[in-house]
Amino acid sequence: MFDKLKKAASDAKDKVAEQFDQHGDKINAGIDKAGNVIDEKTGGKHSDKIATAQQKVREGLDKVDGKKDDFPPPPAPGTPPAPGSTPPPAGGY
After folding, report:
1. Model pLDDT for residues 15-54, shown as the tens digit of each residue
2. Who contacts 5 (Cβ-Cβ below 8 Å, separation ≥6)?
3. Cβ-based neighbour number of residue 79 at 10 Å
4. From residue 10, how far is each of 18, 20, 63, 69, 77 by CA, in Å?
5. Domain coordinates in residue numbering, the chain
């Protein structure tokens, strides 16, 4: 019975990892959008903490499949956003 549970958990993890691989760009945009909304609602008072939280979420989600390939690294400070991308919050990622 324990082996069945381990197999089910492993299968679920694999499915989630597959979704991250397929939709990492959308997930990343959602993380940006959520952080930007919170930053706007707080008047930018907590930009650095929001940026840190966004990066921690990305790092945590990236660990699901054991590879760091689902989300792009944060841009270097002062780097302009790529055309068509959501600009990072004031504090960066």
Report:
1. 888 888 888 889 889 999 999 999 999 999 999 999 999 9
2. none
3. 10
4. 12, 15, 14, 19, 38
5. 38-67+89-93
